[in-house]
Design a protein that fits this description.
Number of domains: 2
Largest sheet: none
Shape: rod-shaped
Helix content: 55-70%
Number of strands: 0
Structural class: mainly alpha
Order of helices and strands: HHHHHH
Radius of gyration: 22 Å
Length: 107
């Protein structure tokens, strides 16, 4: 089954101008997401738009956390998190212990 040129143009416009996701376009135009929308986007040769990367709440504090971890290299992630969250940042930042483990491993 071929897709008409008009439909291809609509798919490309919705994806690149309106920033709609493939599933949204497929529902609105009544075509299959995989065989219709994704194929048209792949054939167009344009880069896929990924998820919007937003800054994390903790990004502003990362230099301070890394500096502290350099001073205390044996500090565990859970201890670092308890210490960090007990300060003034507790009301501002909501994060998980897993994220702190990631920070500790990244250094």
């Amino acid at each position: 089954m071929t897709i008409e040129t008009e439909l291809e143009a609509q798919i490309l416009r919705y994806y690149h101008v309106e920033k709609w996701r493939c599933g949204t376009i497929a529902r609105q135009l009544h075509v299959h997401r995989g065989t219709g929308v994704q194929r048209v986007l792949a054939q167009a040769g344009l880069p896929r738009i990924g998820p919007v990367l937003r800054p994390s709440q903790i990004d502003a504090y990362l230099p301070f956390i890394h500096e502290t971890l350099k001073k205390f290299p044996s500090l565990t992630a859970s201890a670092c998190m308890r210490w960090f969250m007990s300060g003034a940042t507790a009301a501002v930042i909501t994060t998980s212990d897993t994220w702190f483990r990631f920070i500790v491993r990244a250094r």
